[in-house]
Write a structure and sequence with these properties.
By secondary structure, the chain is an alpha+beta fold. It has three domains: 81 residues, OB fold (Dihydrolipoamide Acetyltransferase, E2P), CATH 2.40.50.100; 48 residues, Dihydrolipoamide Transferase, CATH 4.10.320.10; 201 residues, 2-Layer Sandwich (Chloramphenicol Acetyltransferase), CATH 3.30.559.10. The strands form five sheets. Strands 9, 12, 15, 16, 17, 18 and 19 form a seven-stranded mixed β-sheet that branches. A hairpin with a 2-residue loop joins strand 18 and strand 19. Helix 8 crosses helix 9 and helix 8 packs across helix 11. The chain is globular.
Length: 405
């Protein structure tokens, strides 16, 4: 037997949650096949088979918390893989009835064989998340009948919650509340947010931005850029560039506190908050201050896709120096973002909304966005924070100014 063990999970990560088994007991596996997926507080880890064989035992169930070097299961290297219509006991039965293999199967039985090779349970596993299956089981919902809205048609937890359970009143008969154990990632997110609130002198300052010039610039070039470069031009790369330039003027907002020392970062690894099914993650664009708009656009699209697909690497999630979060995509008008500790600053973007504003003594309608900077008042003075936000506002309202370093 070859043990399948929890591999090293990365710096400071000691536990994970068994997210999904891709193989069931009795399935054949080839060397390199992913057997099981683990969720940590940062990334999804795929655990492969090191040698070919048959998965003989699954020692852990989906939802179990495991630690580095724990045994997840066992692979029998000497076992004969089971195939459709044939079991490992086939040699003994064939000895008793030697004539059976020579008889051709009826033609009407031939077509179902390919479908029988993939059990329904395995098919459901590949098309639904563990949380969705658990909720479906608790509520007595046939998950195979639930339409998936996730990427690739995956059935997610919200999809199942939207389906009335047996009884039709939003809960199983007699049920007034339910409990769900936090995943490892959700627990760690909660711990990090509390740590940020407790370990920093948290303060937020606000401003508003007239998006007229940026809207016009984006509308003028987005179709051409997408056609020639295959990149969708969003607002985020412009804010990344504006923030990078503002951080050069106010380097303390790009620093970190280490005990009684301030560590100044002479580079910008820009964190971009991304909402995924597993929770909020903040991958970062390395050396964003040295990259152009198109390169930043490509990298943002890349990390966002990896985040939604659960394919982020540890490098994607470490080393960030500043973060931007955009609640506007969900309709948020104004909020106070929480600092991504141990960073000391985070910029919150919000919904662009037409509002009346005073311009040259007249009231006009302009597309306006509230922006918010949360900062650690231990090292960032209020004046620095306000002037930083004003500089970002100036650059966004006059995009041509971003070309002047």
């Amino acid at each position: 037997m070859l043990s399948i063990k929890v591999p090293p999970l990365g710096e400071s990560i000691v536990e994970a949650t068994v997210s999904r088994w891709l193989k069931k007991e009795g399935d054949s596996v080839a060397a390199g096949d992913t057997v099981v997926e683990l969720d940590t507080d940062k990334i999804t880890v795929e655990v492969p088979a090191l040698k070919p064989g048959v998965l003989a035992r699954r020692a852990k169930n989906e939802g179990d918390v495991v630690h580095v070097d724990d045994v997840l299961g066992e692979i029998d290297e000497s076992a004969v893989p089971a195939t459709a219509g044939v079991t490992q006991s086939a040699p003994a039965s064939s000895a008793a009835k030697p004539a059976a293999p020579a008889s051709p199967p009826p033609a009407s039985q031939a077509p179902p064989l390919p479908a029988s090779r993939v059990p329904p349970s395995q098919s459901e596993t590949l098309k639904s998340s563990p949380a969705a299956r658990r909720i479906a089981d608790e509520r007595g919902i046939d998950i195979a009948a639930v339409a998936g809205t996730g990427r690739g048609g995956v059935v997610s937890k919200p999809d199942v919650l939207a389906v009335p359970p047996r009884g039709g009143n939003g809960a199983t008969p007699g049920e007034r509340e339910t409990r769900e154990k936090m995943s490892t990632r959700r627990k760690r997110i909660a711990e990090n947010l509390l740590q940020s609130q407790h370990a920093t002198a948290h303060l937020t300052t606000f401003n508003e931005v007239d998006m007229s010039a940026l809207n016009a610039l984006r509308d003028k070039y987005k179709e051409k850029i997408e056609k020639e470069h295959g990149v969708k031009l969003t607002f985020m790369p412009f804010f990344v560039r504006a923030v990078c330039q503002a951080l050069k003027q106010f380097p303390t907002i790009n620093a970190q506190v280490d005990g009684d020392t301030i560590v100044y970062k002479h580079y910008v690894n820009m964190g971009i908050a991304v909402a995924s099914e597993q929770g909020l993650v903040v991958p970062n664009i390395k050396d964003a201050d040295r990259k152009g708009l198109l390169d930043v656009s490509r990298e943002i699209a890349g990390v966002a896709k990896r985040a939604r697909d659960g394919k982020l690497t540890m490098d994607d999630l470490t080393g960030g120096t500043f973060t931007i979060t955009n609640g506007g995509v969900f309709g948020s008008l104004v909020s106070t973002p929480i600092i991504n500790y141990p960073q000391v600053g985070i910029l919150g973007l919000h919904k662009t909304q037409d509002r009346p504003v005073a311009l040259n003594g007249q009231v006009v309608i302009r597309p306006m966005m509230y922006i918010a900077l949360s900062y650690d008042h231990r090292i960032v003075e209020g004046q620095q924070a306000v002037l930083f936000l004003v500089r970002v506002k100036e650059l966004i309202e006059d995009p041509a100014a971003m070309l002047i370093e």
